[in-house]
Design brief:
It contains three helices and eight strands; from the N terminus they run αββββββββαα. It is α+β, with helices and mostly antiparallel strands and 233 residues long. It has a domain of 105 residues: Umud Fragment, subunit A. It has an eight-stranded antiparallel β-sheet with strand order 1-2-3-8-4-5-6-7, covered by helices on one side. Helix 2 packs across helix 3. It is rod-shaped and about 140 Å long.
Length: 233
């Protein structure tokens, strides 16, 4: 049969596990929230990662892949053949939405004002893109790194964690569970304190009773001794 001390030790271990699990979940959520933006760009260890949204660049990379682009670059260093990531407007349900696209440069032109314009085409597309990309819309240049089918998993995870349900399951619920555990733990500590206090008061009362009894016995013994002395006289 388990002793009270062993039960307390197990409860403490379980409490520590709960604490570190909750702390880990919050840390993961914070990292994801800090490294991902609503526009689909994710900062990972100093690199900018994007999830490929279509198969227009097959076989170089495909939908669902995670690619990395260098955002620290010089526009003048871009060449025909480079794959650039740029901003573009598309219409979704009648509303303009800013998205990122990654296509290969097929030609570069400079206008009369000295601004560069990049003409692009997807490796899997039969024709070039309709419009050129002004230099101000270029986010970065693909550095050749691609991770197959990872982008879709990351997007799904990030999207779920940022949803109301994900926030509730991974932040609110664990924090509430930890709060309940701490309240139960506090109640247990207070109960034990009250018990120890009651035991202390009981011991003190016993000690006082013993002291009183001892004093009475000593008084009776002294009185008896005095009576004996009187009889001898």
């Amino acid at each position: 049969m388990e002793t009270k001390k062993e039960k307390k030790s197990k409860a403490k271990k379980i409490g520590n596990i709960i604490f570190y699990v909750v702390l880990g979940i919050i840390a993961i959520y914070a990292v994801i929230a800090l490294t991902s933006n609503d526009d689909g760009v994710t900062e990972i260890f100093g690199g900018t990662g994007l999830t490929v949204q279509s198969n227009s660049m097959l076989p170089t990379f495909e939908k669902g892949d995670l690619i990395f682009v260098d955002t620290d670059f010089e526009l003048e260093d871009l060449e025909v053949g480079d794959v650039i990531t740029y901003q573009m407007l598309i219409m979704e349900e009648g509303n303009p939405v800013l998205v990122y696209n990654s296509h290969r440069i097929i030609s570069i032109e400079e206008d009369v004002n000295g601004y560069l314009h990049f003409f692009t085409q997807g490796d899997n597309n039969p024709t070039p893109d309709n419009e050129s990309i002004s230099e101000g819309y270029v986010l970065g240049v693909w550095n050749g790194k691609v991770y197959k089918n990872i982008g879709g998993i990351i997007d799904g995870t990030v999207g779920f964690l940022k949803s109301s349900l994900g926030f509730f399951l991974f932040i609110v619920l664990p924090c509430f569970a930890f709060l309940v555990y701490e309240v139960v733990k506090f109640v247990g500590v207070m109960s034990e304190y009250k018990t120890q206090q009651a035991l202390g008061d009981r011991v003190k009362m016993q000690e006082e009773a013993l002291a009183a009894a001892r004093a009475q016995l000593e008084a009776e013994a002294k009185l008896k001794a005095e009576e004996e002395e009187k009889k001898k006289e």
